[in-house]
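User: New here, any thoughts?
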Amino acid sequence: MEMPTKENAIASNRDAWNDSARHHKDTPEWQARLTDVGHGDFSCLDETLTELLEQVGVDGKDVVQLGCNNGRESLSLFALGACSVVGVDQSGAFLDQARELASRSPHAPEFIEADIHHLPHELQGRFDVALITIGVLNWMPDIGEFFRHVAQTLKPGGALVVYETHPFLEMFDPEAADPYRPESSYFRSEPFVQNQPIVYEGKVEQQSAASYWFVHTLGAIFTGAIGAGLQISHFKEYPHSNREELYDRYQQQTAQLPLCFSLMGVKRMARHGPPDKPVNQP
C-alpha cells in the first residue's frame, strides 16, 4: 500500500469526517442529546474522566478541547465549573452540530474550525487545561508534532489531560472469528485504511473518502509528550472500555487486556537566568 503524505492523510480524514457527520446525527441519541444539553449540569463524561478533571481542577479555568467532534464533551466541562471552553475540530460538519447543541444549552462555548497543525495564533498560550478524549490521537500521522501543537495552546504550568483507547487494543479485532487472537502488530507502522463512512456502531455500505487510522505505541505517546515540553504527572491504565460497544467484550476477562488509559502532562514554566554551563566547562 502506498502511504499518503501527512498533508493528504489529514485532508482525507477531514473529508471522511465531514461525510460521516450526517450518519451520526440521524440517530435517536442525537434527539435525546438536543434535550439533555438544555440542563445546566449536563455532562456526558464518564466517572473516570470526571474524577481526573476534578483532580486537575477545571473550576474557574479556561479549557480547550482539541478534536471536539460535536461538542458534547466541551459542553460537559461547564458542569465541572469551567470559566470558558473552546472546542477545536477540523470537521465543519461536526462543528455545525456542536453549535446546534450549544444553542440549546445555557452555556456559551466557542467552536473553531481548524486543523491542529495550523491552529489560529489567538489560541497560543491561552489555556489552563487542554483536553483530548477518545478517538483523537490515532488520526494524527506524527504524534510528536501533534503534541507540540497541543502544548502551544497551554499557559506555562497548564495541564494536558488525555483519556484514550489503549494502543494495545489495536492488536485485536472484536469482529474476528477469534477476537482474542492478535490480528496486528503492536508496532504496526502503516495506518489502517477505511473507505466507508466513519460510524461508531455497525457499518454503512457506502463509499466515502479514505480515512487513515494511525497506531502509536505508548512509548511514542510518552516520547511525543515529553518532547513537546510536557512533564508527565499522571498515567493510569484501566480494564474498562471507553470505545464502541463492540469492544465491551474485552472487559471482565480472567486474562484482562488494558483497554484505555489516562495521562496528564504539565507544561514546563519558562526558565529565567543564564543557561546551565555545559558539562566539564570551568
Remarks:
- The chain has a mean pLDDT of 92.
- The radius of gyration is 19 Å.
